[in-house]
Specification:
Length: 111
């Protein structure tokens, strides 16, 4: 949510500093893109690069969720029954090998 610019927590100066850092990071990524890609991601919202951030998240979300979820003990009940098709959670993945990325679609305040 933070990367995509959709974070609900906006209550102190630390979030402003984080947002400024993200603008800088994605500005550098933008500068490294080819002209065609720069045109696609051209930002008219003051350097927020929301479309670039969204696409970056979609390209990297599986690895990020893998890192988050692999830190959770297997016996934690929060991830049980979260896999589709009757699978189960074990070794950081559903039985079919998928990483649990479905939390992207859960409203932030419910996570």
């Amino acid at each position: 949510d933070i990367i995509r610019g959709k974070d609900l927590y906006r209550r102190d100066s630390r979030t402003d500093k984080l947002e400024d850092n993200l603008k800088t990071i994605f500005g550098k990524i933008y500068e490294g893109l080819s002209n065609g890609a720069q045109k696609h991601y051209q930002d008219k919202n003051g350097g927020n690069f929301f479309k670039l951030r969204e696409d970056w998240w979609n390209a990297n979300r599986q690895e990020i969720w893998n890192s988050i979820i692999c830190g959770v003990e297997e016996e934690e009940k929060y991830f049980r029954d979260r896999c589709s098709k009757g699978g189960y959670y074990k070794n950081c993945r559903c039985i079919n090998g998928d990483v649990l990325t479905n939390f992207d679609y859960v409203p932030q305040y419910l996570r």
